Amino acid sequence: MTTRIKPVEWAEGIVRLVDQTRLPAQYVVEEYTDWRQVAEAIQVMKVRGAPAIGIAAAYGLTLAARQIDASEMPAFRAAFGDICQSMAATRPTAVNLFGAIERMQRAVSECETPEAARARLLEEAHAITEEDYEADLRMAEYGAHLLKNRFGVLTICHTGALATGGYGTALGILRLAWEQGKAIEVYACETRPRLQGLRLTAWELQQLGIPSRVITDSMAASLMASGKIDCVIAGADRIAANGDTANKIGTYSLAVLAHYHQIPFYIAAPLTTVDFNISDGSHIPVEERDPREVTHLGEIQIAPEGVRVWNPAFDVTPASLIEAIITEEGIAYAPFTETLNAQRAPSRGA
Ligand code: MRU
What we know:
Layout: E1 8-11, E2 14-18, E3 29-32, H1 35-43, H2 50-67, H3 73-88, H4 95-109, H5 114-144, E4 152-155, H6 170-179, E5 185-189, H7 196-208, E6 212-215, H8 220-225, E7 231-234, E8 238-240, E9 245-248, H9 251-260, E10 265-268, E11 274-275, H10 292-295, E12 296-297, E13 300-301, E14 314-317, E15 324-327, E16 330-332, H11 336-343
Parallel strand pairs: 4-5, 4-7, 5-6, 7-10, 8-11, 10-15
Antiparallel strand pairs: 1-2, 2-3, 8-9, 9-14, 12-13, 15-16
């Protein structure tokens, strides 16, 4: 598969979004004409993955700007600000959401008329998408150097084209290494409870023709002990300035296991996922989701009625367990506070 899959697209006043909850059984593209539909799609995870969430929010706000019935800038700005707040309330952990919203608000603040703002927002949403895609391509170049021929690589959740602007973070690195001719074997954790690994990573790896196997999350320790894994690569939803990394629940377990088995553990994410405003991972809000994600498989209840559940969607891996963080600006090693900061371009926006 060489064509670019885009999780979210703009088509003449319509937001087109791949419904990731229906994959791999069905590839369905939904069309939205109301920003509230986009906000709901983010909330229910029809679109998910930190960069893709930011991109969806940006196009949702582009749509919103066309729905705001105001001819004067103060009224337009006030209405747009309220919508930004609602958009920001959809999911709390992935910092790309807030970065994209901030960037869209900044764009509006530089416009003198609602008409100009509407045009500018569309340009900004396109720019956020294309910059993410380009960042992933550069990240893949750096990351692929870390993978040697015949490497077994373990990953978690889903970090491919559908989670990003169209290429992928951790999965983009695997893709490039494979295209470079390295005979890698990828192991994908199924990623309970939403099964992004089983449904989406397995699907994208199949499309790309990369040899892969799925494991249940509880098999990771035995897999590492078997000697089949040479490194672990995961994505990120928010990285604190010191390198502490929030990613899909289960990532921390893999980092602990990798440490025990002396296997390098890498994080791959664009700099838009680094939150330089927070010093460490204790400041990262971790989303707790509906207990039904744990008690049900689809519509089928598999737990006893009334059972109590703890369902955090993410965990925070301490920087001390991370060998390196791969971004579009290079490979950062500890101390991350210094190395990540050095990668940060002064002019960088969201
Ligand atoms: O809850 P999700 O599916 O939006 O979480 C996404 C992840 O945690 C991904 O694995 C990821 O690393 C960030 S997106 C490239």
